[in-house]
């Protein structure tokens, strides 16, 4: 990955360096990547920003994955302030803030297919921390909603779509991890439910740079608008406050 490409060209996208000339030609002719725009009643969805995917300290990903095999390394810690900033803005505007994280039995019996594709999937982290605990920098507030899931999509086997109906949401603003896994699966399912989706480009992260970049590209091409946090913040600031009837203030397992 060529470092500094965006600094040299601020209009560059993170995926540009991975595209061939043929790719660019095909995309242009086929019409993919049109801007769909924001919805009018968005919820902010924070996908799996927990110890398992961030680790317990800032360090290069090659070191982080020795102790937390799913960690995004330094990219995770770069994204945390951006995620925190948009969460605080959403709360100030009275927008729904919804988190996802994992949930499983102590003996991992219910992990199912997660055990099939990773040789370290039965490991426990060396730190005395629950990997499913949401990072303290963005800890849920009493009026936020926390959804515990067992598969990549936040919609699979959860009450998420029911809550979005209850809140009368027409759109999602999504950030979190892993870009190519749970974020992408959630975005595709949201699209399948006819929700407009915005993905916060610098609020997403994962271990593999190529997977991160090309997953953002695919989502932007077909399922969502992938935008920098500054543009998302400007949109959120312009929303009317108090649009939603939020929970009264008791965190519980959803």
Please outline what is shown here.
Pfam families: Isochorismatase (PF00857). This protein is of the alpha/beta class and 254 residues long.
Overview of this protein structure:
With 254 residues, the protein is α/β, with parallel strands linked by helices. The protein has one domain (39-237): Rossmann fold, CATH 3.40.50. 35% of the residues lie in helices and 14% in strands. The chain has helices at residues 5-8, 21-30, 51-54, 61-67, 74-93, 160-167, 179-192, 209-222, 229-237; strands at residues 42-47, 97-102, 145-149, 171-176, 196-204, 225-227. Strand 4 (171-176), helix 7 (179-192) and strand 5 (196-204) form a beta-alpha-beta unit. The relative contact order is 0.20. GO terms for molecular function: hydrolase activity. Residues 43-227 form the Isochorismatase-like domain.
